[in-house]
Amino acid sequence: MAEDLVLLNALGVHLVLIQSTRHAIDSYIRDQGIANTYQGHRRITDEALLNRIIEMAGRNRLIFRGLYMRALHRNRGRSSLVSGNFVSAKPLGIHEGINHKLTGSVRRIDAEGIRQQLEVGSVVYLDHLAHSPAGELYNLASEEVAAETAVALQADKLILMGETPYCVDQQGGRVSELALALVGSIRSNQNDEMSRRLDATERAVRGGVERCHLLGTGLDGAILTELMTTEGTGTLIASEPAASIRQARVDDLPGLIHLLAPMEENGALVQRSRDKLEAEINHFYVIEQDGRILGSAALYPLDDKCAEFAALSADYATTEQNIGTKLLRYIEEKARSNSLQSLFVLTTQASDWFKERGFMMSSIEELPENRQALYNLQRNSLILKKEL
Ligand SMILES: CC(C)(COP(=O)(O)OP(=O)(O)OC[C@H]1O[C@@H](n2cnc3c(N)ncnc32)[C@H](O)[C@@H]1OP(=O)(O)O)[C@@H](O)C(=O)NCCC(=O)NCCS
Q1: Which of 3, 117, 135, 329 could staple 122 via S-S, CB 3.0–4.6 A?
Q2: Whole-angstrom distance between the N-terminal and C-terminal Cα of the chain?
Q3: CA 76 to the chain's CA centroid
Q4: CB 285 within 8 A of CB 248
Q5: Residue 324: CB within 6 Å of ligand 1?
Q6: C-beta neighbour count of 300 within 10 angstroms
Q7: Helical (H) or strand (E) element with 371
């Protein structure tokens, strides 16, 4: 994991790491035969336990620092791993008559202080022990520190790692992605550890962090796999249903070229050079998820009554459903709002797909003359038309 974090940081990703010692504390308590210290989701921390937690947290911090140093050295990285008084605490206090003693809660996150460190390329490392302004040390829940820090920084993402690798549905299958509004529907299927992470996720997403990933610590490369592949390995909780459609921009060109290349190669789409794509970028729309382009389509007006629907594509690697249908609906709406009456499509391999979505076979003669002149006889595409 340290290697992956060094790599992400070298790519310019700002990282704030939050340590958790819960697992080690639970094992210690079990081994020592100490009575259950939990009250609901929160642990009651007395002075003796706090002293032990200080040792464990300090040890974990040093172990991680060593792993990070080694990863930096191997990858010729140069970033500093910075800790400090970025989190201040307050006592959790007495709840339902039970005094939580030295268990604390977040009072304030010094977002500005953290940002200054991130801007100079440092990685910030926070542990879950924090002082109150009066100098008293408290034991905080690491999930709470993570969620509050992510909200204070308005982070792009919060990644919560734990033993359980993902949320499960009623049949025990992995839930790969879920909108926040639907989290309630899977709550009862999760274990305590995942429920705690879901609480933090809800807090973060409601606080403006758009995406939270729940991942397992047991899988090598889990963070990179989750961030760099469409399927990932964990559960993504997003503020709204993931993919959104928008007009393409010049900075989408590399992603578009990557998407279209295999379809151009197998003849499903006509070849477009980078220059041509750039010149025509305003005709293109992309469906995007988490910064990745999952599909595209283009709308070329032919005359004042009709337009050509073209370059429809859905990433071969995505498991996201209905990319093509969503793009078609979106473009149909656009065409209608521009008072167009019909859409043409020229296709070599997807005529059935269009027929199933209301297109009828058409012919060259039905195309406006300006488009007839450009018809590529060699491609021999089928021509279909849909009245809007
Ligand atoms: C055509 C294409 C955009 C469909 O995208 P998609 O996101 O898979 O489409 P949807 O999810 O909305 O629809 C999926 C359904 O269409 C079917 N389908 C996918 N490609 C098809 C094709 N070429 N012909 C017929 N049906 C097809 C799928 O089997 C699936 O059917 P199912 O529900 O019975 O399982 C995609 O296959 C693609 O990128 N093709 C290559 C480019 C191309 O031919 N573009 C059209 C030229 S403009």
Answers
A1: 117
A2: 53
A3: 28
A4: yes
A5: yes
A6: 14
A7: helix 369-372
**What domains sit in the chain, N to C, each tagged with a CATH number?**
1-153 (3.40.1160.10), 156-242 (3.40.1160.10), 244-387 (3.40.630.30)
Distance 358 CA to ligand 1 centre (A): 14
Cβ count near 259 (within 10 Å): 24
Other beta carbons within 10 Å of 262:
14
Nearest atom, ligand 1, residue 316 CA: 39
Mutate to test the pocket of ligand 1, among 285, 345, 353 (most ligand atoms within 8 A of CB): 353
Q: How far, in Å, is the centroid of ligand 1 from the Cα of 254?
A: 23
Tokens of residue 298, six digits? 């283009």
Q: Which residues pair with 293 in a beta bridge?
A: 288
Q: What pLDDT score does 78 carry?
A: 87
- Residue 183 in contact with residue 237, Cβ under 8 Å? yes
Residue of 133, 137, 329, 114 lying closest to 243 (CA atoms): 329
Between the alpha carbon of residue 322 and those of residues 84, 169, 284, 287, 329, the distances in Å are: 47, 22, 18, 11, 10
Please choose, from the candidates 353, 16, 291, the residue with its C-alpha nearest in 3D space to the C-alpha of residue 151: 16
Q: Which of 161, 14, 1 is nearest to 71 (CA)?
A: 1
352 lines ligand 1 (CB under 6 A): yes
Q: pLDDT tens digits for 114-155?
A: 999 999 999 999 999 999 999 999 999 999 999 999 999 999
Per residue in 228-261, pLDDT (tens digit) is 876 788 999 988 655 688 999 999 999 999 999 9
Report which ligand 1 atom has the smallest distance to the Cα of 326. Answer: 12
* β-pair partners for 101: 45
Q: Output helix, strand, coil percentages for the chain, rounded to the nearest 5.
A: 40, 25, 35
